[in-house]
Specification:
The chain is mostly helical. Helices cover about 90% and strands about 0% of the residues. It is found in: Membrane.
Length: about 240
């Protein structure tokens, strides 16, 4: 005679395992979308930055105009970022995608001057160093069982600190302070990569419907995109060879 309670427990265990596998597959698909959007944004930014730099040979007036209006471009990009962050719940998925691609395009215009300051070889080298660091920290943030909330809050406070220090250094022009900002920036954005990855993973569980899940994947990609760009720029100050 078969013990019915054991049969019930076996059925429940099998159902739980099947449900867990389904959730894991959904999470992997969600994270793949996040990384795909992020890679697309980086591709647009890098392609536009290099294309604008190359245009100096063929359309110097265009290039000079972009350089002259660099601050305006950065302010516009900042406005797009704030709009996305505060209005993501109210806009359509297509609009969110368009804003992300727009931000990536504008930032590409603004970052074109780095090709004038640093050699192409050192930019490529820094990119691969940044990619390796980012991949390692994002993987750790995805797999660790440790709650990174405390670390993330500390890093966010540090981020505000280096933003204020950067503004002050615009007027001081201190090379020592600039070096310290770069060191702290590398550490902060390396840590934020892990924290944000874990946060994106946890936000997946709260997704309610395909529309909200799609928006979360776009915002997650935008967050990691910013982590990568800032990590790259901070590292470029160390390993980049100036022309």
């Amino acid at each position: 005679m078969v013990d019915r309670p054991n049969v019930n427990r076996t059925i429940q265990r099998g159902y739980a395992q099947a449900q867990s596998a389904e959730i894991d597959a959904g999470l992997r698909a969600h994270m793949q979308k996040v990384y795909a959007y992020m890679a697309g944004g980086l591709g647009i930014t890098g392609g536009v930055a290099f294309g604008v730099y190359r245009s100096a040979e063929f359309a110097p007036a265009l290039f000079e105009g972009i350089i002259r209006n660099n601050l305006i471009l950065m302010l516009v990009a900042l406005g797009v970022a704030f709009f996305m962050s505060f209005r993501i719940h109210a806009i359509q998925v297509g609009t969110a995608k368009a804003l992300f691609w727009t931000y990536a395009f504008i930032l590409g215009l603004g970052l074109a001057p780095i090709f004038m300051v640093y050699t192409g070889e050192s930019i490529a080298r820094t990119f691969f160093i940044s990619a390796g660091t980012f991949a390692a920290m994002s993987l750790w943030g995805y797999t660790t069982k440790r709650d990174l909330t405390g670390m993330g809050n500390f890093l966010i406070m540090g981020l505000f600190g280096i933003i204020l220090a950067s503004i002050v250094n615009i007027f001081l022009g201190s090379s020592g302070l600039g070096f310290a900002i770069s060191v702290l920036g590398v550490l902060i954005f390396t840590g934020l990569t892990a924290y944000d990855t874990q946060k994106i993973k946890e936000m997946y569980w709260d997704a309610d419907g395909a529309d909200i899940a799609a928006k979360k994947s776009i915002m997650g990609a935008f967050t990691l995109y910013l982590d990568f760009i800032n990590l790259f720029l901070m590292l470029l100050r160390f390993v980049g060879d100036r022309r």
